[in-house]
Amino acid sequence: MTASSGRSLNPRSDPASPWWHIDPTPAMAAVGLGIIGLLGIYSATRGRDVDNYVTFFVERQGLFLVVGVLAFVGLIFFDYRWLARLAVPIYAASILLLIAVMVVGVEVNGAKSWFSFGTFRMQPAEFAKLGLIVALAAAMSRRVEGTMPLQELVNAIVIAMIPISFVVLQPDVGTAMVMFAITAAMLLVGRAEAHHLIFLVALAALAVGLLVNSSLLADYQKDRLEAFLDPSATIASYNQRQAQIAIGNGGMTGTGFGEGTQTKSGLVPEQQTDFIFTVIGEEFGFAGGTVVLVLFAYLLWRLYRMARLAGDSFGSYLVTGVLAMFAFQMFQSIGMTMGIMPVTGIPLPFMSYGGSSALTSFLGVGLAVSVHMRRFAAGIESEIGNPGP
Question: What is the distance between the alpha carbons of residues 222 and 130, in angstroms, rounded to a whole number?
Fold first, then answer.
């Protein structure tokens, strides 16, 4: 029972209306992280010569955040249950984009992962993460109850491995890791057998070992993995040490906004993207880092609650995938600045510079809020055997 079938959008006339149940707090946390990220990008890109500071990165990221918020607002008006019907074309489109980028895309830092449109770039692998979430949710929600049978597990693995394989071929190991984490989390929630999951983890570890010793990865990507195992071995370990020094400089309250020595000197590489957390750690200290972690923790908690309260299995799987995407990216991006995770090109959601990442992140939050808003209508329609708008 939706607006299209007679259900009113006016909450006063319909207690099950989605507008009774909107939760804006995840978006508020996301915007808060985006504003902190803007401050970090400003410091990371202005350098020592403040008088000749180029505002390109801050202005562009501000635009990305505005577009992201508008995308969030637009998505909460969209009934997420339509995505179950659109799952195949969405998944197919994401695969076609991943293939196209390897043919006509531009290469940056050894990876052919971007389309170039003048001064703008678009990374299809970011949107492919959402395509994977929708495809897996649609496939897994067909089962009503019970543990996941082997055939369904195999189908889910095939669905996941196709985009993951194309992302690895770019090569973009970081995004492939995120997609694997999304798949693992959704399979776990989908009640896959424990011994099947253990086998998959072992198989993934073997695949990583083979990948490291293959010619697919660029030398700098191999150096990053070697640096994680042996911090004294490569140039990549130097970059990670600089990140740790920057965070260590911050102490409890930080050096002050725009006063980080490592940041102003440009000693931390790709600080506005991969290492954005080092700016917060150096200039705002432990206190600033805690604020970021609290905002992420709150966002993840609200997403967890939304997944638990979803009115149907499709919505629950969707929010689970978004939750896994944010949780893994946060842990990996912050963890690599502290030396507990290998250095990869995974952006910190809402904070790292990049339009594709910002838009994908806000779309993920919008998708979760859409599920939460319509949980009662979805539950009612599931009970009467009409699971769709």
Answer: 27
Cis preceding linkage at 347, omega within 30:
no
pTM, entire model: 0.89
At 358, which amino acid appears? A
Domain hosting 153: range is: 19-383
Most confident option among 46-55, 69-78, 167-176, 186-195: 69-78
Please report whether residue 41 resides in a domain: yes
222, with CB counted inside 10 A (0-12, 13-18, 19+), is middle
Domain annotation covers residue 345: yes
Measure the CA–CA gap between 373 and 23, rounded to whole angstroms: 7
State the angle between helix axes of 285-309 and 355-373 in degrees (0 to 180), rounded to the nearest 10: 40
10 in a structural domain: no
Q: Between these two residues, 13 and 45, which has the higher pLDDT value?
A: 45
Number of domains in the chain: 1
Instruction: Judge whether 63 lies within some domain.
Output: yes
275 neighbors 269 (Cβ within 8 angstroms): yes
Q: Which tens digit of pLDDT belongs to each residue from 318-358?
A: 999 999 999 999 999 999 888 888 888 789 999 999 999 99
